[in-house]
# Entry
Amino acid sequence: MKWNRALGLNIHQLWEEHNKVIMYAGSFLLLGIWLNPLIQQASYKNKCIHFATKEFLARASIETKSLTERELARTEAYRFCNHI
# Structure
């Protein structure tokens, strides 16, 4: 017994009637797979900056008068997490 005939499935007809929907869904899926590592890396970098800012605030000493403690800690955290 062939299941596609029993269930009324015709792949060729399905493709002809819904090819745009299938192509758009496939394109969005591939775009999401391609962008996922970039989004994850940005998320990890933001977490690194957040935790490094807390660490630098805990041992902060104002070295310049133009930056507040928080700005100085964020600057140092950004440099630390981006390996500058």
About this structure: The chain has a mean pLDDT of 79. The chain has three helices and no strands.
